[in-house]
Specification:
It is a single chain. The protein has nine helices and eight strands. By secondary structure, the protein is of the alpha/beta class. It has one domain: TIM Barrel. Strands 7-6-5-4-3-2-1-8 form an eight-stranded parallel sheet. Strand 4, helix 5 and strand 5 form a beta-alpha-beta unit. The relative contact order is 0.16. Pyridoxal 5'-phosphate (PLP)-binding protein, which is involved in PLP homeostasis.
């Protein structure tokens, strides 16, 4: 059953917290349900799981409309500014604010829909060309600009670390992200809370938790391998 796999992830998070002297209650597991049928989400929801991650606007809106009772939807993927209007009032958290342009559009639509949108700022520490996000040296300037936008509440940072065979190889990036997170928190920017540090996926979430992640995004570890041919 899916809940067994979800509970296995929760147990691994608990063990990682224990190793790091942290409280497991401080870490949220987002079940990344992209490409998976609504029936699997319903199965987990019926067992009390509430946080689900999607990386496509069309998939979030479809599942949002069809699910039998509300859950917390997390937008975790890169998306275009012209898609913002479709999800701005449907998501609990946007993890992937990777440009000031996108933040401005979220702000514009948030004001229009009369909602406050919690967001995370995506950081590309490893400067991988295949991934979006702000480079470290761009981050403070971007935060200053984004923090002044109405309708947006910056709740923290998000990182997609490099895909590595050995999860330990990403420890350096998780550690640096944690330091950035703390440094920004101490700056006391207006409208920037720094409550959430979203980092760690199926292959490296335990290391991420050891290094201070408060939110992990686990798909394959819960739902199994994805079939992208559909």
């Amino acid at each position: 059953m899916l809940i067994d796999q979800y509970n296995e992830v929760k147990e691994r998070v608990r063990a990682a917290c224990e190793r790091a002297g942290r409280n497991p209650e401080d870490v949220t597991v987002v079940a990344v349900s992209k490409t998976k049928p609504l029936s699997m989400i319903e199965e987990l929801k019926d067992c009390g799981v509430m946080d689900f991650g999607e990386n496509k606007v069309q998939e979030i809106t479809k599942k949002y409309e069809q699910i039998t009772s509300p859950v917390r939807w997390h937008m975790i993927g890169h998306f275009q500014t012209n898609k913002v209007k479709y999800i701005v009032d449907k998501v609990a958290l946007v993890h992937s604010v990777d440009s000031v342009k996108l933040a401005r559009q979220i702000s514009k639509e948030a004001v229009k829909h009369k909602v406050e949108v919690p967001v995370l700022i995506q950081v590309n520490l490893a400067k991988e060309e295949s991934k979006s996000g702000f480079y470290e040296e761009e981050l403070y300037g971007a935060l200053e600009e984004i923090s002044s936008l109405p309708g947006i509440q910056v709740e923290g940072l998000m990182q997609i670390a490099p895909f590595v065979e050995n999860p330990q190889d990403n420890r350096i990036y998780f550690r640096r992200m944690r330091q950035l997170f703390v440094d920004i928190k101490e700056k006391n920017f207006d409208n920037i809370a720094m409550n959430i540090l979203s980092m760690g996926m199926t292959n490296d979430y335990e290391v991420a938790v050891e290094e201070g992640s408060t939110m992990v995004r686990v798909g394959t570890g819960i739902f199994g391998e994805r079939d992208y041919s559909k």
